[in-house]
Amino acid sequence: MHAAASIAGGLAAVWSLPALAPLVPALAARMGVPRTGAPPGAVAITFDDGPHPEGTPRVLALLADAGVRATFFLVGEQVERHRSLAAEIAAAGHAIALHGHRHRVLLRVPPPVVRDDLARGAEVIAAATGVTPVLYRPPLGIYSWPALSIARARGLAPILWSRWGHDWRSRATASGVAAEVAGRLESGDVLLLHDADHYSARDSWRTTVAALPRVLELITAQGLTCAALDQGR
Q1: For 127-162, how does the pLDDT look when each residue is reduced to its tens digit (9 = 90+)?
Q2: Any bridge partners for residue 158, and if so which?
Q3: Does the CA dihedral 53-127-43-35 come out positive or negative?
Q4: Can you give the pLDDT at residue 108?
């Protein structure tokens, strides 16, 4: 009985291991999931969970004013609701990437459902933007072992991030987000922010919008530039 419980516990631990990848760089490396990827001398600002009817336009306006290209990891179900906004992101020259069709923790999703989710999300995004996503980051950055295999079989390149601002939290502040996500940068860093509050604290996108100008200032002050992630990688 104890042996069976021990085996079951071990299997559960192995199955859940990918959930630690966003927090443990060595594990992400063992899984073959990069945390960086911006060109030399640059960092990549990325936004998850959109598009959002209020947050995304304000983020786009700030990026346009600064002449900066970012990478948007779009959610298929939100693209279905805001197709023209997704098209606007692509038309502005930003990189388009896949965040899944539905925003679910993949450890709880069986492989056939993951396969369908990725296919539908990529199809919806491509139809709205004219761009077939190549980069893939799942909700919460949590892959499952089958999801990694399925994504790669579809030609999707998995990626995480190396800096984040925890901007989705209700207690987050603009100054705190900016300091955390851009305070100590290195060439190649991938910065994680959110232009939407569909799956996080209500109105958290407002904190992101308020933090973004300071984020851009900090990047420049450290002698770095901003670049979108390579969609052909």
Answers
A1: 999 999 999 999 999 999 999 999 999 999 999 999
A2: 136
A3: positive
A4: 87
pLDDT digit string (tens) for 11-26? Answer: 344 657 888 889 899 9
Question: CB of 137 within 8 A of CB of 160?
Answer: yes
Residue 55 and residue 208 in contact, taking contact as beta carbons nearer than 8 Å: yes
User: Is the confidence at residue 2, as pLDDT, over 80?
Assistant: no
- What letter does residue 15 receive in the DSSP assignment? H
Helix (H) or strand (E) holding 44: strand 42-48
Q: Is 155 left (phi over 0), alpha (psi -120 to 50) or beta?
A: left
The b/e string for 154-192 (b: 16+ C-beta within 10 A; e otherwise) is eebbbbbbbbbbbbbeeebebebbbbbbbeebeebbbbb
pTM for the whole structure: 0.93
Contact residues for 163 (Cβ-Cβ < 8 A; gap 6+)? 43, 180, 181, 182, 185, 189, 190, 191, 192
Q: Is the dihedral of CA 91, 168, 101, 122 positive or negative?
A: positive
